[in-house]
Design goal:
It is a single chain. The chain is of the alpha+beta class. The protein is built from 4 helices and 13 strands. It folds into 2 domains: 40 residues, no CATH class; 133 residues, no CATH class. The strands form 4 sheets. Strands 5, 11, 12 and 13 form a 4-stranded antiparallel β-sheet that branches. Strands 6, 8, 9 and 10 form a 4-stranded antiparallel β-sheet that branches. Strands 4-3-7 form a 3-stranded mixed β-sheet, with no helix packed on it. Strand 1 and strand 2 form a beta hairpin. Keywords: Signal. InterPro entries: Lipoprotein_repeat.
Amino acid sequence: MRRILASSVGLATTVLLASACGGAGEPRTGYSRAAANATESPSMENSPPPEMSPTGGMSPGASPTDSGMMSPMPTPRNAMVKVADSTHGKILVGENGHTLYVFDKDTDDTPSCYDACAVAWPPLLTLDKPQAGPEVVENLLGTAVRKQGEKQVTYNKHPLYYYSGDKNPGEYNGQGKNESGGKWYVVGPDGKKVEK
């Protein structure tokens, strides 16, 4: 069609049509549409970070919480518990450096934090046996099964949780909070909650 048009209208028309259609490549309108779509789609920067904040966003391997939402933390094959220094002394933290908490409403290794509670206080989940970092007493580590079958890491028979209000490692904004029907505490490597 262009050859017929070029011979009847001339070279100037051919150049004009070629530039309007984008030449041999994709038409410019298609490029513009793709560019617009790219700018309209959400970027990962606008998503919550995968680790908290520990409440960060979805990442491969994330597990649903009992509320049907995605867990803010990816579920590692072998979750690791470590020890960090804090103003409360040595406390347990996740592999990501975020503070771990116990809930005084939990009895033995039975979690009681679900739904909205589990959004604010995401459980530390694992697929296999949790791993002990330096200074963590390995035989105090265990797991509890949550209502939907996920394995939650326990320490000295206390289920472990993150706090969504801790945006960075080294924060412990959940210490002593009274939420979801009970109090929350950081926990020491001896397995006891720290109340100071």
